[in-house]
Structures are given as structure tokens and as C-alpha cells.
Amino acid sequence: xxxxxxxxxxxxxxxxxxxxxxxxxxxxxxxxxxxxxxxxxxxxxxxxxxxxxxxxxxxxxxxxxxxxxxxxxxxxxxxxxxxxxxxxxxxxxxxxxxxxxxxxxxxxxxxxxxxxxxxxxxxxxxxxxxxxxxxxxxxxxxxxxxxxxxxxxxxxxx
Length: 158
Fold this sequence. Notes:
The protein has helices at residues 14-33, 40-50, 57-64, 68-80, 102-122, 128-151, and strands spanning 84-88, 96-100.
């Protein structure tokens, strides 16, 4: 299928649908983790540190699509809660490396279980094959977009 003026509208736009799903996910995770004093943004940051996706404020901001200043403030809050620690890099004293504390790792794992339950609830009526297909399609879309973003000055050019 190629999009045209007559077939491209919000309910068929991949970008709109992904954004809407993301917004609903953030709202659901915020509600799920509220009693633990944890927001969806804090959780995604903890998980990113846990899985080694980044280990600096700049790296996390880039990975999670946040403003660098907002990420620094978020890390300040998480450090105050005892979830994250900062250490100067031995090789480059200008860099400050972030790591999870034992309490941060425990918080990430406990929250992960709640988020898993949340997604299992959303997908309760889906078959294993449907879930696997959705994940495969989203991973393929991510790969395609990463490749286009890396190779083209205008990744949206036809």
C-alpha cells in the first residue's frame, strides 16, 4: 500500500497511531506506578540505565528523546531518591557517568513486573502469534527508520 491524499488521515497514519499509543502507555504506566512514587519517565530512565542503553545524561536524553536540561533535573530527582549515582569518568573528567544503585535496580525490576502486568492486560485478548507479529512489525519499522535516518539528509524523501 502506498499512501495517497485519500488514504492518509490520522486513523491510518503510522506516526499518529504510534504517538497515540505512546501517550496512552505513558498515562497507564504513570497510574500503575504512582503508588510507588515513580513516573513513567523515571521508569524508562531506570530501565535504560539497567539495560545499558546509555550512561550519561546526554546519552539518556538522546535515547529517550528528552531535553538535556530536563534529563539533568530528572537525574537530580532520582539521585535524591537513592536510585542513581553519578561518578566522574576516570579517562575524561568532564564526563559524569550514571549508574543504578542497588535500590535503583530493585525499583526498576519491581516496576518492570508491574509494567509487564499492564501490557499483559492490554494484550489479554491477543494471541501469542498476534503479539509476536506486532513486535516484529514494530522492530522492522524501527530498523527501516534508523537506516533511512542514517543514510539520507532528508529521510522522508521518496
